[in-house]
From TrEMBL:
PANTHER family linked to this entry: IRON TRANSPORTER FTH1, PLASMA MEMBRANE IRON PERMEASE
Membrane topology summary: Multi-pass membrane protein
InterPro entries named among the record's database cross-references: Cyt_c-like_dom (IPR009056), Cyt_c-like_dom_sf (IPR036909), FTR1/Fip1/EfeU (IPR004923)
Keyword set includes Transmembrane helix: yes
Residues spanning the signal sequence: 1-26
Localization annotation: Membrane
This protein's name: Cytochrome c/FTR1 family iron permease
Keywords carried by this UniProt record: Heme, Iron, Membrane, Metal-binding, Signal, Transmembrane, Transmembrane helix
Amino acid sequence: MLPLRRSLWLFSWLLLFMLGVQFAIAAPQGAPADRAQRVVHILAYIAGDYGGAVDDGQVVSPSEYQEQQEFSRQAQQLLQSLPMDAGSQQLHAQMQSLITAIGEKAPAERVRQEADQLRLDLITHFNLQTAPQQTPSLSNGKRLFQANCIACHGINADGSGPQAAGMDPAPANFRDKDRFDTISPFGLSNTIHFGVSGTAMPGYGQFSQQELWDLAFYLSAIRYDPQQIEKGKALFEAEPSKWVERFQGLRGLSAQSDVQLLGNRNDPDARAVLSYLRQEPEATRSIVPSLTLSRERLNASWEAYKAADPERAYTLAVSAYLDGFEAVEPALNAVDRDLRTQIETEMGLYRNALRNRLDVAEVEPLHARVLASLDQAQDVLTSTKLSPTTGFLSAFTILLREGLEAVLVVAAIVTLLVRTNRRDLLTRVHAGWIAALFMGVLTWWLARELIQITGARREVIEGVTAMIAVVILFSISYWLIAKLEVEKWRRFLHEKIQKASGKGSVFALAGVTFIAVYREIFETVLFYQALWVQAGPSGHTPVLYGTLAAFVALLGVVWAIFKLGLKLPLRPFFAASSALIYLLAFIFAGKGILALQEAGWISSTPVSFVRIDLLGIYPNLEGLMLQGALTLAMLFALFHTFVWAPRVRVAH
């Protein structure tokens, strides 16, 4: 048994190492992405300031015009240092066109449009994060401004601070509507982070991502008239879904300027609503932006595939599901479960088509079908208000579904230790699941505050931890079967799990409780975030009651397993424990494979088979093969224990 145990733990530690690598690379701002972000930052500066350098084909500010030329050349050099791929030639052509326009002293509108278009294409091409993961806090932004910026920009953010005298160029006046109508909060956050070369504006690299967004949104919101804001509030509250869709939710508010969002149209109602949403970005929280993101990534994926860039197309297709659609799954599940399953399946078929490099003509209808289903989902979600009953049941189902597997593992192991008179190990096992709760919440907090854990990495975390759980749970189940034979069981009690075997059991049992709980808590919190938004303020109370009811139900499951386990005779107890733990390993295997497929780590081969979410059974060949292998291994263990071993003893 010792070589087998060492092999199992070596495999588990290897998987843990892979998980650690995922955390190490969780921030998307690697070297290429950081340079791409700098190019985007420079382009935003050009789009906003070129008009102050050139007017009607004439240079009105030589110093600013020289600055525009220098910045555009710097952006070109950075772009040339980025990795080349199938889509790079178009980006380089766009950059050269922009440099030519600046050199020819082209009209400001043309330069702005070219710079903005190149910015958007760079963001899409490099999959840059252009929106915060949580709603920005304008009050915190104001605090940061007062602590770091008023010396130059002034208490009113109008550029009249005590240190502003003699600065060239002068500090920005954030109340200048003409200028800042062309700059997005995303552009401002980049400026704050990187600073502006050749000016007195330093970079604030010490700010966290969320602090950058807080400050950028605060500065983007201070130039509006209070009466206009009040008018916008009334208009928004009358038709919230209309306006959220119009401005693409928090993502649109973050990534686009007023000019981009309004389209230069003279629409006073739209301008008023936009002024209100700049002040109250929390109001944009809705299912619409996530579906919009999903459509955008799917369309970008389709364009990349047509441009003979299948790897990028596949990456964007994975992001369309994980960073877009997955956020609305809990809400859609509450009102139309069949549609949710349909979209999951269609997105999987589209990804498989890209991975298998099918002809463009074969992929096109798959792409169109997914877009049509997303439109249907949006219609369902925006027209269906989450009733109190649905909110309660959704909250109850999420916690019960996600928590049941973890609770079953912990309850079964605690009962096992009590029945084997190993209460001395209970403290360590309890420490395992309690640590998992803290680690899960910490991971969620890190994902919101410090690092960007994308949907793909989130699925990798779930998939890798599931695979570790499979290894440990299956080994425990196999060990329990071996103890069903009475003589072995008596000898086991006599030895009391001594020496290496006992130590291995301690770490295995404590480790599996940690993993089983950790893999559930992070996803549960994310699901609740989506449900909380969908329910709205009036639906929060039913959601809380549903959560409480599920918690009580899970406690009931723990109590039932513990009481039943204490009353069963030893042989039936070990048989039941082995069956339960094996079943959990079987479920984790299916769900782990599915998570890794959704993250794009392994391929998915659809087959005609039933789908049973509760048992982790999904119609894909890879997951079914692993579950089949586990089933064969368990059948072999049963055969060896009850058929082969008794015959060998009789023969001897």
